[in-house]
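FAQ

Q: What does a record look like?
A: Structure on top, sequence underneath. For example:
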């Protein structure tokens, strides 16, 4: 069972990338791969959970995760401009400790994540990925967070965009390859048929925000938690607001695994269940001001979108 009580406001946190940086520079940073600091294997690992791991990962002692670190509050660069932090990273460091694994994080372009997973350069994609039926055809999800979609508009919401219908006939920016781009394209065949949305897909969510700030887009469309984070962060204060009162089109999200890695998938699922039971999971979500997105049941491939 899922619980959802998404709040309409969010604590302002400084964005690692400010709106003063050009979209070109941001896109270039996104495309560069880099390593973030991991954690040492925990001496208090859970032996039962560790026994569930595939032999090669257990022997290596490392869990290799891939992410795109321009999607706060789920993953973003810390003040050192190198270490990847955020909700997903905090959860996976806790998961790694329970499994007795060092967590090794590779930051790469969003569109490089699935090829890296397919090529086994990483073990799991941890990048606030929405669980969808289309993705389930090739990959497995462990759904550990409930979210929805959000609309970022200029301060004052000059075009009165408050929901999907308000996007019809507008210019809307979103992250390339994201669920949000797919949703916008679906809207053009349904709610917005005959009054299509002009969709601009960009390399990072920060690029989409810059499109709105410059007037080249009427709105950006992203995960609700991301939209609220960006609008409330120092770079967005006074420039943006959220058009929707409540998250639109609720969805579940979580880490992605190849179908062949069912053993690792199940070990991660069992570990998240333990973290929920002992309170660690809720504590981590609350620390990131995302407690309202908590799930009470961890599902595999529970997405219905």
């Amino acid at each position: 069972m899922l619980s959802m009580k998404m709040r309409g406001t969010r604590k302002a946190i400084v964005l690692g990338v400010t709106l003063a940086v050009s979209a070109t520079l941001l896109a270039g940073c996104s495309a560069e791969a880099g390593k973030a600091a991991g954690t040492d294997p925990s001496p208090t690992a859970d032996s039962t959970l560790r026994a569930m791991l595939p032999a090669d990962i257990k022997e290596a002692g490392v869990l290799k995760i891939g992410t795109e670190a321009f999607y706060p509050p789920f993953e973003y660069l810390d003040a050192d401009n190198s270490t990847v932090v955020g909700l997903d990273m905090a959860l996976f460091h806790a998961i790694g400790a329970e499994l007795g694994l060092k967590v090794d994080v590779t930051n790469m372009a969003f569109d490089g994540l699935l090829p890296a997973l397919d090529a086994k350069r990483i073990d799991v994609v941890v990048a606030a990925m929405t669980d969808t039926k289309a993705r389930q055809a090739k990959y497995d999800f462990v759904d550990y967070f409930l979210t929805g979609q959000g609309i970022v508009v200029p301060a004052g919401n000059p075009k009165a965009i408050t929901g999907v219908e308000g996007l019809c006939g507008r210019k809307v920016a979103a992250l390339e390859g994201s669920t949000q781009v797919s949703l916008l394209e679906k809207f053009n065949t349904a709610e917005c048929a005959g009054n299509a949305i002009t969709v601009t897909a960009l390399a990072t969510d920060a690029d989409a925000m810059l499109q709105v700030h410059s007037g080249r887009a009427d709105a950006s469309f992203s995960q609700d938690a991301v939209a609220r984070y960006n609008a409330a962060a120092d770079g967005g204060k006074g420039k943006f607001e959220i058009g929707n009162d409540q998250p639109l089109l609720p969805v579940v999200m979580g880490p992605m695994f190849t179908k062949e890695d069912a053993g690792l998938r199940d070990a991660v699922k069992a570990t998240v269940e333990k973290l929920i039971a002992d309170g660690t999971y809720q504590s981590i979500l609350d620390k990131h001001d995302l407690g309202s997105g908590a799930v009470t049941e961890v599902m595999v491939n529970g997405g219905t979108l």
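Q: Is there anything notable about this one?
A: Residues 1-41 have pLDDT under 50 and may be disordered.
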